[in-house]
Amino acid sequence: MVQLARGNLIVIQGPTAVGKSDLAIQLASYFSTSIVSADSRQFYREMTIGTAVPPAADLNAVKHYFVQDRSVQNPLNAGTYADEALECLNSLFNDNSIVVLAGGSGLYVNALVYGMDDLPKDESLREELNGEQLEVLLAELKERDPHYYIVVDKRNRQRIVRAVEVCRLTGKTYSSLRLGGNCNHSMNVIQVAVNRPREQLYDRINRRVDIMMDSGLLDEVRGLYGFRNLAALNTVGYKELFAYLNGNSSIEDAVALIKQNTRHYAKRQLTWLRPNKDLTWFDPSEMSQIIDFVSSKLIK
Prior knowledge:
This protein is of the alpha/beta class. The protein folds into two domains: 7-116 and 180-297, P-loop containing nucleotide triphosphate hydrolases (Rossmann fold, 3-Layer(aba) Sandwich); 123-177, no CATH class. It is built from 14 helices and six strands. It has a six-stranded parallel sheet with strand order 3-2-4-1-5-6, with helices on both faces.
């Protein structure tokens, strides 16, 4: 892994639709710097509307990295992202001592900030697990790793199989082993988390889904139908509309399910973030307080 020059990384995290992108742009503008994205779906150029990629005006106002810079056919996992992001930051810190990281995917943020362990694999065991019913795997995961059971997408079979595989091979919890084993950077990391009252957050989620549909999300999903089995497309907003295109639901039910699943995703994100003692929480409207806090933590 590349050893980083000294620099300040301002990390912005929070649930989906809370306003992280706007806050990141405000902070990057204030500190005259750029933004590195850690949103694992905004990486892909084919996915624009359903991933809430910032509008062109915002992308032009502040330089963004890892936003629509690759195809869904060239997937990026958390470990590879951490390596590529560190290389990017190493370059950026040559010109600016401050960079903003806009976090959308907690695993990708943690992989960059804390590092990742090299987790064991066993192809024969994985093949055995792939033959198990999802309900059986979930029951085992709940017993072996209750924390990861709470935050994992219960319909994401690939992640559930991987977690059970690691638990069986190591006798330890998957959540305790994923992170923290190979951190090798010299950044001063300043971690900010933002949240809103639940009713306000859920209203923002619902309105954003309506805006996405009005902006042509269905056409975007229809154009990606041939890639529907790729992991990147197993994403809220896409999988529900694939089901509609397959004739398994009405468009009204699909949109309602997108809203519901997005709210559930926001809850899982908060469950993931709350145990992290390195986070300092704010309301997104508290811009002056956030700037004061970040400024007080900067290393010159």
